[in-house]
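Technical note accompanying the year-one report. For the benefit of new consortium partners, we illustrate the data format agreed upon in the data management plan: each record pairs a sequence with a structure-token string. No post-processing was applied to the example shown here.
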Amino acid sequence: MKIVEISVKKDMLKIDKDGTSSWYKINASNTPAQEVVKTLVVGDEVDVKSTVINGVSVVSRIDKSDSPATPVAEEETMEEPKVEAEKVDVIGAVNNFEKVAEETAKYKCTKCGKVMKDDKYENCYTCNQAEWKSKQGATGSDRNNSIERQAIGKMTARTVSALIGTWGSPPDTAEVEVLIDFIYNKYKQKVTE
């Protein structure tokens, strides 16, 4: 076999074998073959042992041939084993709806009876959402009123603490209560306008 071409990176060789040329790959992990390839030039005679993996000829051994006669290359064909996929029924394929309906019918929502695909949950999504909403307590205007009262209370507390800090002597409790009621009502009036 005669070398017709060597790639720039010296990891591929084009070798002429009985009038037909084909490319051979030298893996980076095959250091003995890489050392031999560094000494080769176009036109050299070589003995090559290669393996075909997924349609690519990979050099397993290469030697520079001293004789002018071209020996026949040894080639082994090695393909990856074919793994057959497990046959699984596909919903909608060739009318297997009855089978799917029979298998899934054993899992039902405990509230509405809707058919579910497995027993991971007791209730369907719709029933779970309805239950969650019912447990939330105050909703809508009740919740908004609560948030509003909390906000006004916080504003009142900040205002009162700031005002008390400006008074020289400690204020009387009755004065503070009157002040809180007044400020709270003013804020409530402003917020509801």
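Partners are asked to follow this layout when depositing records. Confidence is low (pLDDT under 50) at residues 69-75.
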